[in-house]
Write a structure and sequence with these properties.
four-stranded antiparallel sheet, alpha+beta
Amino acid sequence: MSGRAKARSLVLSVACVVALLIFVSRWATRVGDAPRLGAGSSAADPGGPARAAAEPVPDLSFYRMLDAPHAPGFEGPAPPPSPPPAPSAAPAARPGAYIVQVFAGRELAAARHLRDRLAARGLPAMLGESGSGATRLYRVRVGPYRERAAAETAARRVREQGLKPWVAREAPR
């Protein structure tokens, strides 16, 4: 045999072996997936006890549960939980309390700066907001005070800072 014939024979042999290996590997995976009948299993129960233990039986009682009467004492779905109260930036003033209004504006940074400045001077300054979106206002207040005289004293201290406060009565909530 010539060199070319030997090479052709070798390539053909390798191609046959590769084709045989591909066929065997595909056949083995298909046969492995097929149900086997053996001792303890039947045609109606493929896989027998081993498969039953491996795969849990799905619970198909959903529709029966929907039609079943309600349990005793069942009054329907629970009411939705009430939303938590919104945190207030300012402590709630008692009815009839007096506050010193120092600032009302749309700039949060300016309101925070003023509140911090007043708090550094020992005044009980608080920051509140009202409205939403473009109508949102930030208020800086000092207080609350039980008596108007105490609120007037605090207003004098605020005026010493070069501000123009006014005393107001806090509306009852």
